[in-house]
Amino acid sequence: AAAARFAAVSEAYRVLGSAALRRKYDRGLLSAEELRDAPRPSGRPPAAASPPPRAPTARPGPVPPPFDFDAFYRAHYGEQLQREQLLRARREQLRLRREEAAAQGRLRVLSDLSVGLLFFLG
Question: Which InterPro entries match (predicted)?
């Protein structure tokens, strides 16, 4: 089954690689002898097949601005972006409050120890 499939693909490759064989195949005139005797096509397309490169041409009038992806993104995901920014700001405020509370707690412990030490020594 694999050998037959490979043979069919090879035959199609040979026909499609030759303009003359392709024309005969399209007209239904391609014989098995012609196909067997046909040379294998090279891996490269013929040089004449590729169009020559064109020089860029300037457009008359104003050039339209490129697509504004930022506006598109804001239009489709604006609410989600606002929620994320709000959550980020709240998390930052909470972090700052915790840091302040921790600093005040350390200061209070230090002052309590100092007062206790003064009573003990005094």
Answer: Mito_ATP_Synthase-Asso
Quote the CA–CA distance of 109 and 116 in Å, as a whole number: 10
Residue ranges per structural domain of the chain = 1-43, 69-122
Average pLDDT, the chain: 84
Rounded Cα–Cα distance for residues 11 and 40 (Å): 10
Residues 6+ apart with CB under 8 A from 21: 14, 15, 30, 34, 35, 38
**4-54 tens-digit pLDDT:** 999 889 888 888 888 888 888 888 888 877 777 777 766 665 555 566 777
